[in-house]
Design a protein that fits this description.
It contains 13 helices and no strands. With 305 residues, the protein is mainly α. The protein starts with 8 loop residues before the first helix and ends with a helix. It has one domain.
Length: 305
C-alpha cells in the first residue's frame, strides 16, 4: 500500500481499535501507579506480555534465532521502545494529566522524521516534511507553554520526560528499520519485550522490591489491560495495520489517541486540561497531515482545474 492510499473500511476499523486501545493505556498506567512504583509498573506491563507474544511466535511456528547479533538488536530495541519510554511515561504521569501525556506523545512523529533523515539517505527532509516537522514542534511548544519551563518545577520536568520518551520511540523506529526489518514482526515484538523485561525486572526488584501480588482488584485490572491489550495485542495489531495502511496512514493513530485519553482522564480521574493544550494539539495535527502528504493531496484535488 502506498503511503497516502485511501484506507479500506477494515483498515480504518483496526486503526480506530488500535487508537482506542492505546488511548486507554494512559488511564490504565495512571491507575496502576496509585499502588505500584514506576519501575514495577513497567515490569508488570512487559513481563506478562512477553509470555503472550512468545505464545504467538510458537503457535505460528516461527523459528527462534540463536544469533547473538539479533539478540543484541532485541536488547537495544527493548531499551529504546519499551524500557526507557515506558519508565519516562510512568514517572511523568505522576505529575501531569493523562490527556496531556497523550498529546505530548505526538512528538514521536516529528522526531522520527528528523532521525530518519539523519540515518537513511532515502528519507531526506523535503520542503513538505520540513514544514510538517516545524508545525509539529510548534504544536508541542504551545502545548507545553514554554514560559512554564522557565520555572523548571516538577511538572515541567515531567513534561520534558514525556518528550524524552517520544525521542526514544523515534530512535527505536530507526533502529528497527536498520536492524530488525528482515525478521517476522511477531518475533521482533516478542524479542524486544523479552529484552526489556530482562532490563526492567532487575531494576524494579532493586529499587522497589519484589512484585507485590496483594494488589487491589482495580490495580490488577489496569495491569491486565496494559499487558494483554495495550502491549501484546496492540503490537500485533500495530503490524497488521502497518501492512494494510502503510506508515504514513499509521501516523493517524497518534491523532486519534489523545481524544480517547482526554475523555477517559476527564470521566474517570476528573482531569481538566488548559485550553492551550487543545490549540497545540490542533497545530500538531496539521503538521502531521502535512507530513504524510494528505493535506497536499486534498488541496491539489480541491483546486485542480
Amino acid at each position: 500500500m502506498t503511503q497516502n492510499q485511501t484506507l479500506s473500511s477494515r483498515a480504518w476499523g483496526e486503526l480506530l481499535l488500535l487508537a482506542l486501545i492505546w488511548g486507554g493505556s494512559f488511564l490504565a498506567m495512571r491507575i496502576t501507579l496509585n499502588e505500584v512504583g514506576v519501575f514495577t509498573t513497567v515490569a508488570h506491563r512487559i513481563f506478562w506480555a512477553a509470555f503472550i507474544l512468545w505464545g504467538v511466535v510458537l503457535y505460528r511456528g516461527i523459528s527462534i534465532p540463536g544469533s547473538g547479533k539479533i539478540w543484541g538488536a532485541f536488547f537495544v530495541m527493548g531499551a529504546l521502545n519499551n524500557a526507557i519510554p515506558f519508565a519516562l511515561f510512568a514517572w511523568g504521569q505522576l505529575y501531569i494529566e493523562t490527556g496531556l501525556t497523550s498529546i505530548l506523545n505526538g512528538a514521536t512523529a516529528p522526531f522520527g522524521i528528523l532521525l530518519a533523515a539523519l540515518f537513511f539517505k532515502d528519507e531526506p527532509i523535503t520542503l513538505r516534511r520540513g514544514i510538517g516537522v516545524v508545525l509539529g514542534f510548534l504544536g508541542m511548544a504551545i502545548t507545553l507553554g514554554l514560559e512554564n519551563l522557565q520555572e523548571f518545577n516538577i511538572k515541567s520536568l515531567a513534561q520534558l520526560a514525556i518528550l524524552g520518551a517520544t525521542f526514544s520511540y523515534a530512535l527505536a523506529g530507526s533502529w528497527a528499520r536498520a536492524q530488525l526489518g528482515h525478521l517476522p514482526s511477531q518475533l521482533s515484538a516478542a524479542g524486544m519485550v523479552t529484552a526489556a523485561t530482562l532490563i526492567m525486572v532487575p531494576l524494579a526488584w532493586y529499587f522497589e522490591g519484589p512484585f507485590d501480588l496483594t494488589l487491589m482488584p482495580s490495580t490488577w485490572m489496569a495491569i491486565f489491560y496494559m499487558t494483554v491489550f495495550a502491549t501484546a495485542l496492540a503490537y500485533l495489531l500495530y503490524y497488521r495495520v502497518l501492512s494494510m495502511a502503510g506508515s504514513g496512514n499509521l501516523m493517524l493513530c497518534t491523532l486519534l489517541i489523545p481524544p480517547v485519553a482526554v475523555i477517559l482522564g476527564s470521566l474517570v480521574l476528573g482531569e481538566a486540561l488548559h485550553f492551550r493544550a487543545f490549540i497545540g494539539f490542533g497545530v500538531l495535527a496539521l503538521g502531521m497531515f502535512i507530513l504524510d502528504g494528505r493535506l497536499e493531496q486534498y488541496l491539489r484535488r480541491r483546486f485542480s482545474v
